[in-house]
Write a structure and sequence with these properties.
Elements: E1 5-16, H1 55-67, E2 71-72, E3 75-76, E4 78-82, E5 92-96, E6 102-111, E7 124-137, E8 141-143, E9 155-157, E10 164-170, H2 177-193, E11 206-216, E12 226-231, H3 234-253, E13 261-266, E14 271-277, E15 287-288, E16 295-296, H4 299-308, H5 313-324, H6 328-334, H7 338-351, H8 354-372, H9 383-394, H10 400-413, H11 417-424, H12 432-445, H13 447-454, H14 460-471, H15 478-488
Parallel strand pairs: 12-13
Antiparallel strand pairs: 1-10, 1-11, 2-6, 3-16, 4-5, 4-15, 6-7, 7-10, 8-9, 11-12, 13-14
The chain binds zinc ion.
């Protein structure tokens, strides 16, 4: 950003709540169905049809609100937001206005500016005020392509009309495009984590808008802001905000000034362009929806939702850093996805070697997952099996290249470690008599260590294991080695 200027950015995110059916009727929200097949009198807006609230949307809304640090209100009011648009058959959207479902949240997140290669520089915590998160229904879609004669006609598909949304609105708290970028990624991760939304921008179930203005550093005034829409990915959003900041600074400096307006991101030209000016702004004439009761949630409901909250990713990341001595970067990667984080933690606990568990989960396991399109939760190899493999490596019974080969086979087939090792011929020596001979040799050659061990230096046990493994060229069965060593020492 040009020196002497600062950006003031507020964000609005719409997240589709992960219900199976719509918010005010029983129609499916499945994507890809025949146009207008998932519709009924309620979501078609036919006269006399009455909305009935889908409670699951409230349950998921509560998870989203708590995950974002918001306070759930005991009573909120649905309101009609009136405007005319072809994909809005009722002539109004059921939303919430002055009494939203949840309000007043403080969200802490990590953010970093990026260098010109896009690499994160220093990660720092920022605190964001979330003004509100309310519940509302989505509109349908106008279809302008992919159907016959779209040069003559537009088509309307109302399958999406009535899909439940949570709209999350922040204060003007962001000072750079990268902060907004990190915020949207944070929201996406947290909503997926608690199961409130699939939060996939490519599929349109997470959409965002940014309000951007600039001012001289140190100024207290707010200049006219521009609302940015049509931001189809987090990266486009960041680019659009960055472009807009530079455009506005130039407009202020030349004295041309900035008008309050809505602009779209043109991803082909890499610039924002005017969509509508303030003169076209709607007056929505909100009023309470007469066909729905106020939405009441009890303290018990809120308390139960709090109890069911899983540990959130940022708290888990801090715990991984503290408990397992992982780096910020590794802990961040491990907590990018809940099933990955759980997989790592199980492997770390069972193997008693968190460092190696992190290396394997971020290395071989992630690599195999990327090739397979399977999420970590559906992996054939379990975290316990990975822990077994790590123990086998630590015991020195197979080397690192063998271990990678064994793991690839485990990942593809779900077979346990021992079976794969046997099939691959990385066979261990499990003959107790043969191992005993080696142990006797090792004990005979290391009298000083034997004496020290017997007088209480327990740490030396690992030394003996190492010597025996070395003498057997890594082939002795570590379990038998351990047992025999214990009895002989
Ligand atoms: Zn319906």
């Amino acid at each position: 950003m040009k020196e002497g200027w600062e950006a003031i950015i507020g964000m609005e995110v719409h997240a589709q709540l992960a219900t199976a059916t719509k918010i005010f009727c029983g129609c499916s929200v499945e994507v890809g169905s025949e146009p207008n097949s998932n519709t009924c009198p309620v979501c078609l807006g036919l006269p006399g049809a009455l909305p009935v609230l889908n409670w699951n949307a409230v349950v998921l809304g509560a998870k989203a609100a708590l995950a974002l640090g918001l306070e759930i209100q005991n009573e909120s009011i649905f309101a009609r937001k009136n405007y005319f648009y072809p994909d809005l058959p009722k002539g109004y959207q059921i939303s919430q206005y002055d009494r939203p479902f949840s309000a007043n949240g403080t969200l802490k997140l990590m953010t970093a500016e990026r260098d010109h290669h896009g690499h994160a520089m220093e990660w720092k915590p920022i605190s964001i005020h979330i003004q509100r998160m309310h519940l509302e229904e989505d509109a349908g879609k106008n279809v302008h392509e992919g159907l016959p004669e779209t040069d003559k006609y537009s088509y309307i598909d109302l399958n999406r009309a009535g899909t439940p949304l949570a709209e999350i609105v922040t204060g003007p708290d962001f000072r750079s495009s990268w902060q907004a970028y990190d915020y949207v990624n944070h929201i996406r991760r947290v909503l997926q984590w608690v199961g409130a939304s699939d939060a996939d921008m490519e599929k349109g179930n997470l959409r965002c808008e940014a309000n951007v203005s600039v001012r001289r550093v140190g100024g207290a005034e707010f200049n006219n802001k521009v609302e940015l829409k049509n931001l189809n990915s987090v990266r486009f959003m960041q680019k659009a905000i960055e472009f807009e900041i530079e455009r506005q600074i130039a407009a202020h400096e030349t004295g041309e000034g900035v008008s309050q307006e809505t602009r779209l991101w043109d991803e082909k030209k890499n610039e924002t362009r005017l969509m509508r000016s303030k003169e076209d702004a709607h007056d929505y004439r909100y009023f309470p929806e007469p066909d729905l009761q106020p939405l009441a949630v009890s303290d018990e409901f809120i308390e139960a939702a709090k109890r069911e909250m899983p540990e959130l990713p940022d708290s888990m990341r801090e715990r991984f850093i503290a408990d397992y001595e992982l780096s910020f970067a590794d802990a961040t990667q491990l907590t990018a996805d809940r099933s990955m984080a759980d997989f790592f933690e199980t492997a770390a606990r069972h193997s008693l070697n968190p460092r190696l568990a992190a290396n394997w989960v971020l290395g071989e396991f992630s690599r195999e997952l990327n090739h397979s399109t399977r999420p970590a939760a559906e992996s054939l190899v379990s975290a316990e099996d990975l822990a077994e493999l790590i123990k086998t490596i630590e015991a020195g019974s197979i080397n690192n290249n063998q271990a990678k080969e064994v793991f690839a086979e485990m990942f593809a087939t779900g077979k346990p470690v021992a079976q794969v090792i046997e099939e691959k011929g990385f066979e261990q020596v499990s003959d107790a008599g043969e191992i005993e001979k080696i142990i006797d040799q090792v004990i005979g050659n290391n009298e000083a260590q034997v004496t020290a061990f017997r007088s209480g230096n327990e740490k030396l046990f690992g030394f003996f294991v190492g010597q025996v493994m070395k003498a057997s060229e890594g082939k002795a069965n570590p379990k038998i080695v351990n047992e025999l060593l214990r009895s002989k020492l």
